[in-house]
Amino acid sequence: MFVKLALAVLPLLSSVLAIDGCTRNATVVSGDTCDSISRKYGVSTYQLALVNDATIDENCDNLQPGQVVCLGIEEHDCTKVYTVVADDTCDYIQQTYGISNETLWSNNPQIDDACDNIYVGEVLCVDTESYTYPQYNETLYNALAYTYLPYCDE
């Protein structure tokens, strides 16, 4: 009984917990994933995970309908995004959006040096302006990346 009550209250609590400087937010609906929210609202998957690392777990499987998530924070809200598809490379993304190597990595610090950890469905910030993000939860990103990487082979 207590567990059911706690689960029912969780979305309400998460919507009450305000993230300092949150500039925009979204309400989770049934079937949402971190990547689908990112695509729907034009926010990078990295940024979504970063600003919600206190409420979204490592596999992004604890989203609850009615839960409010922050999409961006003041001065760190990239809204020019691209969704990775099969066979994408960082070089291709850079050329397509006219962004430098430094800017791509600055706006997507989770990408490794070889750019072999981007995954199909990941939403990247492709703005030509560089954003400086606070420290990110590398464990959360890696859990997302390695959860979806096998689909790159399809």
UniProtKB/TrEMBL annotation:
PROSITE patterns, from UniProt? LYSM
InterPro entries per the UniProt record, alphabetical: LysM (IPR018392), LysM1-like (IPR052210), LysM_dom_sf (IPR036779)
Question: What is the protein's given name?
Answer: LysM domain-containing protein
**Keyword Transport appears in the UniProt entry:** no
> Can you provide one Gene Ontology molecular function annotated for this UniProt record?
chitin binding
> Which CDD domains does the entry mention?
LysM (cd00118)
Keywords for this protein: Chitin-binding, Signal, Virulence
Q: Where is the signal peptide?
A: 1-18
In this chain the LysM domain maps to 24-71, 80-126
Q: What SUPFAM superfamilies would the database entry show?
A: LysM domain
Record flagged with keyword Membrane: no
